[in-house]
Design the sequence.
């Protein structure tokens, strides 16, 4: 992994001339690396940026130390930030310090889930441009125009502050063709799980995914995926993981029906390349599966081709009324069926629940508690979350999630027997801050 200097690795790769006119500095903390790897990969694939100096900075201390050198070497320095809503406060402090110490010596671009959902608030932090939605094509065009000193305000997919003080969004781009861009940055050796699907048709009220990537699923082709599996394998990287909103929806034209043939063709093709040397992970971190898509057929494919010992199943609530309110599109019965199938197959069923969802009443909490108890008796483990409102979602202005006393008592019992895991306590505190921000606009 390169630090702020970035020069040794880039020189070996023949990518960088230290006297090149423009440099791109990615702030590179662990939670944001997958998206940044994808953006860096898109830039690597663009001939115009063959000599672009790219730096990947893992810590705030190294960022400020590095910028002292980088701003002295390059006439144009772009700093790229990607962040989630829970990172808002630390990112706001970082931007404030960057503007204070470097001012117009750097050009600040922000993207990712929070800037996409709250572009006006993000501009208010002090960034120059927000990339809204998918970033590959937008960033390539934006950096090209900025580097050539052309008017970048015509670039689709950005939000910026006009000189008169107004906010302007240049409009959405067409959805990205995943086959056009690599899933990671090959030349910089920044590898990630392979993103195989974008887009989600369910548009759950608490989730940003469908709003960022659209409701129509787009799949990377099997041939394209296998090409990158071969590339990873040649480099000795034989643990193959996937990024997708729903692992068992691969190949589905609508994201709701299951295409078992496509799913098996993908897994069979990966296994043929990595053989017994490597491992496949399907339906476990960093992806999950919807309960109604957990069937004998899909789980048998996991058992036949993959190596994960668990499935992460998105239940979210034990109340059908709340599931319907969230537009989940599945039944409580689907959750029980999914757990039973998973456990019978010898896999651990890790079941996601979100506590304190908007509209919950005591009766809904009671139903969720009963469902959790029954699932645990059937062999499941609970992955606990507290509801946090997120910008751009239907629940953006809803109150922060609260864990009831009854539910907290159950969690404590489950925690003692290692039947629950997650960061629900931290999320409960953070949700209050987020709700205050989204309803009042103040950090």
Sequence:
């Amino acid at each position: 992994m390169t630090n702020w200097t970035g020069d040794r690795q880039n020189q070996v790769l023949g990518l960088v001339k230290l006297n090149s006119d423009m440099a791109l500095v990615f702030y590179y903390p662990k939670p944001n690396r997958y998206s940044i790897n994808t953006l860096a990969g898109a830039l690597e694939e663009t001939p115009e940026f063959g000599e672009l100096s790219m730096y990947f900075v893992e810590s705030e201390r190294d960022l400020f130390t590095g910028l002292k050198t980088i701003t002295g070497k390059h006439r144009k320095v772009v700093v790229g930030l990607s962040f989630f809503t829970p990172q808002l406060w630390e990112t706001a402090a970082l931007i404030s310090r960057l503007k204070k110490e470097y001012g117009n010596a750097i050009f600040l671009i922000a993207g990712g889930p929070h800037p996409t959902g709250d572009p006006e608030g993000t501009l208010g932090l002090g960034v120059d441009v927000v990339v809204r939605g998918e970033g590959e094509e937008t960033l390539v065009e934006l950096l090209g125009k900025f580097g050539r000193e052309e008017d970048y305000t015509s670039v689709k997919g950005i939000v910026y502050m006009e000189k008169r003080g107004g906010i302007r969004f240049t409009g959405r781009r067409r959805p990205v063709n995943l086959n056009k861009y690599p899933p990671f940055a090959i030349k910089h050796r920044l590898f990630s799980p392979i993103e195989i699907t974008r887009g989600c048709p369910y548009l759950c009220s608490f989730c940003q995914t469908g709003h960022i990537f659209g409701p129509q699923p787009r799949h990377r082709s099997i041939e394209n995926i296998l090409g990158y599996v071969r590339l990873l394998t040649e480099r000795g990287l034989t643990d193959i993981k996937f990024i997708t909103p729903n692992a068992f929806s691969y190949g589905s034209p609508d994201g709701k029906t299951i295409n078992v043939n496509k799913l098996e063709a993908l897994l069979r093709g990966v296994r043929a390349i990595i053989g017994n040397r490597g491992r496949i992970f399907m339906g476990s971190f960093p992806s999950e599966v919807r309960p109604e898509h957990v069937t004998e057929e899909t789980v048998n494919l996991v058992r036949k081709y993959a190596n994960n010992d668990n499935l992460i199943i998105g239940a979210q609530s034990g109340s059908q009324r709340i599931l319907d309110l969230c537009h989940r599109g599945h039944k409580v019965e689907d959750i029980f069926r999914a757990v039973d199938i998973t456990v019978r197959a010898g896999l651990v069923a890790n079941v996601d629940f979100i506590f304190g969802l908007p509209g919950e009443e005591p009766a809904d909490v009671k139903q969720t508690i009963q469902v959790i108890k029954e699932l645990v008796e059937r062999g499941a483990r609970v992955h606990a979350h507290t509801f946090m409102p997120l910008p751009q979602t239907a629940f953006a202005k809803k109150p922060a999630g609260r864990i009831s006393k009854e539910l907290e008592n159950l969690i404590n019992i489950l925690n003692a027997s290692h039947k629950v895991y997650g960061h629900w306590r931290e999320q409960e505190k953070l949700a209050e801050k987020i709700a205050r921000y989204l309803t009042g606009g103040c950090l």
Q: What stands out?
A: Residues 1-19 have pLDDT under 50 and may be disordered. Residues 194-440 form a domain with the pyruvate-formate lyase- activating enzyme fold (CATH 3.80.30.20). The longest strand covers residues 348-355. The chain has 16 helices and 17 strands.
